[in-house]
């Protein structure tokens, strides 16, 4: 029986745990998407990211995504983690080793690879269109902006 | 027409414009979806900068900007959802 795990977390995401959750002896494939935080945008240096969620609704929307996946594809387990809270870049380290963190982790297992590959692709596209989570980028020059996903149909920039 | 007290939640840009995360407001009990969008901006003029760029959710379900009548109940939770940026 396939299981879903959905977590919205204010700590760094554990990719290994997601893989562990979806691992199953009857699944020959695990497909995964990891969204990473970026420390730059249009040449501007991002020093801080702030994620905010309407957590209860976000969990509901993520559950709907899991349901849709199960209607469309034969998959076994689904794990979706999303980061909230603050990700602060170490400005000293940024010059040499950019600090990056996973903002979203999606892992799906299935008997055959095509199913989980397609399911993961669908999951991240749907998440960007419907799950109420927001990201603010704060730049080193003091300005900041709430980002908007192009997949979101009430976004300003489309 | 009946008036209903609802809780209204603000997030991200909406929260910054409003200056708080949560408020109470009285709204007619059976607006159309489209009217509800207009009523929210009427009640909270601070949302003017994003008036065409937010979605509404009632009890955690998105509301279409349509002619369909929405029936509000006392204590319902309405949320202003600015463009999302998860992922």
Automatic annotation (TrEMBL), chain A:
Sites where the protein binds substrate: 112-113, 128, 135-137
EC category: transferase
Name of the protein this chain belongs to: Molybdopterin synthase catalytic subunit
Pathway: Cofactor biosynthesis; molybdopterin biosynthesis
Task performed by this protein: Catalytic subunit of the molybdopterin synthase complex, a complex that catalyzes the conversion of precursor Z into molybdopterin. Acts by mediating the incorporation of 2 sulfur atoms from thiocarboxylated MOCS2A into precursor Z to generate a dithiolene group.
Family of this protein: Belongs to the MoaE family. MOCS2B subfamily.
SUPFAM superfamilies tied to this protein: Molybdopterin synthase subunit MoaE
Organism: Paralvinella palmiformis
Gene3D superfamilies per record: Molybdopterin biosynthesis MoaE subunit (3.90.1170.40)
From TrEMBL, chain B:
Keywords recorded for this protein, A-Z: Nucleotide-binding
GO biological process: Mo-molybdopterin cofactor biosynthetic process
Domain of life: Eukaryota
GO MF term list: nucleotide binding
Transmembrane segments: none
InterPro entries per the UniProt record, alphabetical: Beta-grasp_dom_sf (IPR012675), MOCS2A (IPR044672), Mopterin_synth/thiamin_S_b (IPR016155), ThiS/MoaD-like (IPR003749)
CDD domains: Ubl_MoaD
Record's GO cellular component terms: molybdopterin adenylyltransferase complex
Name of the featured protein: Molybdopterin synthase sulfur carrier subunit
Organism: Paralvinella palmiformis
């Amino acid at each position: 029986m396939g299981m879903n795990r959905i977590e919205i977390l204010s700590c760094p995401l554990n990719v290994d745990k997601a893989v562990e959750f979806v691992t199953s002896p009857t699944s020959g494939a695990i497909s995964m998407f990891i969204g990473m935080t970026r420390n730059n945008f249009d040449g501007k240096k991002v020093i801080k990211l702030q994620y905010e969620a309407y957590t209860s609704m976000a969990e509901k929307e993520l559950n709907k995504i899991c349901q849709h996946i199960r209607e469309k594809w034969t998959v076994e387990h689904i794990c979706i983690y999303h980061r909230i809270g603050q990700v602060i870049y170490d400005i000293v380290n940024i010059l040499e080793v950019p600090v990056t963190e996973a903002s979203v982790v999606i892992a799906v297992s299935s008997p055959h690879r095509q199913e989980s590959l397609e399911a993961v692709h669908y999951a991240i596209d749907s998440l960007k269109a419907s799950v109420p989570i927001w990201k603010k980028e704060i730049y080193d020059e003091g300005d900041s902006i709430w980002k908007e996903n192009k997949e979101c149909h009430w976004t300003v920039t489309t | 027409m009946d008036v209903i007290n609802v809780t209204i939640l603000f997030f991200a840009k909406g929260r910054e414009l409003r200056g708080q995360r949560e408020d109470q407001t009285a709204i007619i009990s059976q607006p159309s979806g489209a009217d509800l969008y207009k009523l929210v901006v009427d009640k909270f003029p601070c949302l003017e900068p994003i008036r065409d760029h937010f979605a509404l959710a009632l009890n955690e379900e998105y509301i279409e900007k349509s002619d369909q009548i929405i029936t509000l109940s006392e204590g319902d939770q309405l949320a202003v959802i600015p463009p999302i940026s998860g992922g």
